[in-house]
Amino acid sequence: MALDTGSESNADHSRVLAANRESIVTSKSMKRAALYARVSTETQQKERTIESQLFELKKQIVAAGHMLVKEYTDDGYSGKYLDRPALDELRTALKADTFDVVYFHAVDRIAREPIHQNIIVGELLKHKKRIIISGKDYEENPENRFTLDVLGAVAKFERAKILERTRRGALHRLRSGQLTSHGQKTYGYTYVRKTPTQPCALVINEDQAAVVRSIFEMFASGRYGLNAITRFLEKSGAPTYKGKGLWYAQNVRFMLQNPTYVGTRYFNRLASVNDVSGDGKRPKGNKRVLRDREDWIAVKVPAIVSQELFDKVQERLRIVRERYRQPAVPHLLGGLVRCVECGRMYSSSRFYVPREHPSGKVSVYHRAVYRCNRHLNDNTHDPARVKPCRNSVIATHILENTVVDIIRDVMFDAGKLGCCIEGTDRADDGSAARELARIAGETKRLDEERRQNIELYATEQRTATEYLNVNIALDEVLDRLKREKADAASTLREAAARDVLGASIRHFCATARVRFEECADFDAKRRFLRDHIDRIMFNHGKIALVGSVPLGSVATKETELHFRIEGEIDRATIRSKSLRRLWRDERSTSWVPGTHAEEPSDEPAA
């Protein structure tokens, strides 16, 4: 049946435009639409019935406020088969992200067979495309919910079957002594893929195997630790598996514990289990745990080191694990101090220093310092391969006392803290209001231009390319207006918030002072610092305390005002301190009552 383009089509256009004026929302988020139309018989092709499908689909697109970007038409192709040029082009375009929604005139235009329909619908949904069939959203149509549930269940069942068959096949090959790659690459070996006549295998890589033997021999000798071995490997130019120059102690430790190097590779060692949080209520996801030893599957591979050398290494590892380690001592600013020079965190370390008096008496003091974590690289890697951090080390009691002094001097004074708030410059409130009025007028004008563009396109006075180009140009102008509106609105919000800001700062200072004075032990002090300071920036004696003041009664990230309080360690005061006090870890003695660490004993060392 031929398309009637007379008074009836004009009336349809009028109805479409009337509905469009009420429903179109002008924004850059306008959905990009594609349509698919199909006729199969020669009679339908001659009568141009595909034109009626295109007309109806375009009406739906315009009425929904979507932007037509592509038409796919199969004129004279049967729906019995999926092999159709336009349909193939549409399926290929799914990966290119050229449209957001696809319109079909009816479900039988997709395909005649339900299984073929489900294939196409599944592909569209997989790529997160909306589907409109006969003017209705496919996913929101109650008749299709059951189909979607069935598709999801079938796909999940098929994946589970494939995984189970793959797992059983892999275990069968392993139990018969055949190797599987499991995607793991072991330093010292080259993985050889299977061929029609030979199974996959691990073959010794002699260049890497020589490095492995050196690692085992050095550690077994007792003269080298893990860090010393990594430095030696880097200085000697031994390449890592990926060809990079840096070695890491944890990787060397794993190699020393790997039984593959003595000729046995174990599979099926780990199992995936559901993990829950400490309270036993919230799931944390899956974690990998060791299976029972009898469930492991051993596969023989070529050995690189002897069993005797491997056992010697394991014995030394056991001794190292059982060796006494100084227990970790938390410090007041732990986890807060960050290095300005390299961006890494500062951590606290504690070590003992013997001191001999003129009388011959020996006293042992402990020194606690904050140092940049980058210094760990100096001990792990070859100095020629890593750039050291030059930021200074600072005694814990000196940094902690300085931070406490800054808090007392600035954070409890609303006037001083207000000067440290970032982004509170005054602006011209009147000009911001005038700017908002101008932007509102411009936006209204853009809305009218967009409606005119849609009307011209719907009445075929403007081509699809022209319609698309005009929409893109209008979107660019609208984007600029949105940015200008946000800036002007921000200026007005700042002006309106000044009174609230002053009250918020005064409230913050008062509550912080009260809580500070109530801190009677080390844990309370740490909680206070964690709650009021986000980070402490340290750079060669210069300090910056960074935190935020909640604006109003409810604190959110959007309503927080950030402050930055800068200070500096008094070097003259440090030099005036006695040597004995410098060696002691005095734990913020100026913050009373309460302290965390006991004074070290002056009794002679045994």
From TrEMBL:
- For the keyword DNA-binding, the answer is yes
The record's region (Disordered) falls at: 587-606
Q: Active-site residues?
A: S40 (o-(5'-phospho-dna)-serine intermediate)
Q: Which InterPro entries match?
A: DNA_bind_recomb_sf, DNA_bind_recombinase_dom, Recombinase_CS, Resolv_N, Resolvase-like_N_sf, SSR_resolvase, Zn_ribbon_recom_dom
Show the Pfam families listed in the entry: Recombinase, Resolvase, Zn_ribbon_recom
**Annotated Recombinase domain residues:** 186-323
* GO MF: DNA binding; DNA strand exchange activity
Among the record's GO biological process terms, what is one? DNA integration
Resolvase/invertase-type recombinase catalytic domain sequence ranges: 32-177
Which UniProt key words apply to this protein?
A: DNA integration, DNA recombination, DNA-binding
What Gene3D superfamilies does UniProt report for this protein, alphabetically?
Putative Large Serine Recombinase, Chain B, Domain 2, Resolvase, N-terminal catalytic domain
Q: What is this protein called?
A: Recombinase family protein
